[in-house]
Amino acid sequence: MGSLHRFSCVLLVLCLAALGRAEYVKYKDPEQPVAVRVKDLLSRMTLAEKIGQMTQIERENATAEQISKYFIGSVLSGGGSVPAPRASAQAWASMVDGMQKGALSTRLAIPIIYGIDAVHGHNNVYKATIFPHNIGLGATRDPDLVKRIGEATALEVRATGIPYVFAPCVAVCRDPRWGRCYESYSEDPKVVQSLTTLISGLQGDVPSNEAGKPYVGGRGVSTVMVSYSSWNGVKMHANHHLITDFLKNKLRFRGFVISDWQGIDRITSPPHKNYSYSIEAGIGAGIDMIMVPYTYTEFIDDLTSQVENKIIPMSRIDDAVYRILRVKFTMGLFESPFADPTLAGELGKQEHRELAREAVRKSLVLLKNGKSDYSPVLPLPKKAGKILVAGSHADNLGRQCGGWTITWQGQAGNENVTAGTTILSAIKATVDPSTTVVYSENPDSGVVAGDKYDYAVVVVGEPPYAEGFGDNLNLTIPEPGPSVIQTVCKSIKCVVVLISGRPLVVEPYIGGIDAFVAAWLPGTEGQGVADVLFGDYGFTGKLSRTWFRSGTSCR
Ligand code: BGC
């Protein structure tokens, strides 16, 4: 009995001692320097756990079970990929938290990092504030405004429990035929550079001490996404020189490099023809996290076998995982892996809408005002007898927001799309109550000639599009835009407002137009357009790209 008791005591002491030791895990200690935590964690990881960290999968196939089974390191929402149509901030947060629980249930409890395209506000989310697309922000030339947009966007994204955005796009678009041109601030690298203030808006100011949160090296972004493009015939996703030699070694980038959506698949033509080769070339070039996004077991199995067969060296895997973990530790994800429910009210809040309205005002570019210098048409008088508002884009929230809005390609429509103010409702809210506003999307000459209008506002432009769907060799205003312009402007003094992701050919009609305004893709706050048309604010926007005379001049 006595010896049994003594034995139990010894056992108890041993268990306590073991427990005591188990309680202290270096990488879990926020007091330890990030480098110490990363090294400690990396030293405990199996190959499967490391490869999981390098794998980013799409929300649609990301259950908590799959995340824990494959040690998945990151999940994303592709364009339009939402937990449910019109999901609330809370519904988003609980989806992300549910996935996070899966990640935290694993042996090492490494949190996932959830990422999303928030490229003009938190654009996938119903009732988020939608800011002008980057081409419009380029016209503002206002780095401080763009920084404030970054701050507001960060809050709206955090409201949905998401800590990571794929933005800003720092492309310098030189060719407007490219369907992504509106994602670029300008054709001028200096303008693009000046508006990277979005980054300090999104992430917070660069801390004075090099190592502060969330900056991995005191130098700016924590992740870089490789583009689909090629340079001198080499796919960016396979470009060792730019990714490893230049970005990581010469510029000493300390964050992680992520692929684009199936970006490594496209190293071959046709895409995915030789996935093993794509994996070898992409990871060999220096990509750390792969946006797979669906066939992740194929990716994991293939990468595992390439590492086991020493085709891809373990040192490359360790570099990738080191970088991913460094970002996760630095941003505080281990300490705060879940959504902060107190932020839910940030989504689409009034202050952010006011900011977007300011951005719209500053993005408008006045290109013609009156048929002669002596007859300016703008600003328009608020008090008038009767005015006509016409055109496909006058009363259409979806069209004024463009692509990357609620869905990947964007869509036409109003309340069915999201919440905001159309240009027509903005005009109605701005004019004097005694002014009659007649709206006709596509008026015939009878309507136009039969009535006596003081002036007309015609709002036309491009349909929403994103990426390759917007590639276009024929940069003209789509019909019925030109016919509406001609019908209205031949009888009524008219202002044409163009809603487009790029300059379009206006040469055939510009002579018949009294005033012409480029409004780009202004987003949900159409009131900003009326603020300037009616003179509450002046025009300050400047073209951020060349306005070409004809389609052939850009061929
Ligand atoms: C786009 C990226 C985007 C990704 C995820 C790709 O098609 O090129 O800009 O981040 O999809 O939505």
From TrEMBL:
* Domain Glycoside hydrolase family 3 C-terminal span(s) in chain numbering: 364-550
Molecular function, one GO term? beta-glucosidase activity
Q: What InterPro entries does the database record attribute to this sequence? A: Cellulose_Degrad_GH3, Glyco_hydro_3_C, Glyco_hydro_3_N
Q: Which UniProt keywords apply?
A: Signal
Q: Give the GO biological process terms.
A: glucan catabolic process
Q: Where is the Glycoside hydrolase family 3 N-terminal domain?
A: 46-205, 219-327
Coiled-coil blocks: none
Q: Which Pfam families match?
A: Glyco_hydro_3, Glyco_hydro_3_C
Q: Which interval of the chain is the signal sequence?
A: 1-22
Full protein name: Beta-glucosidase
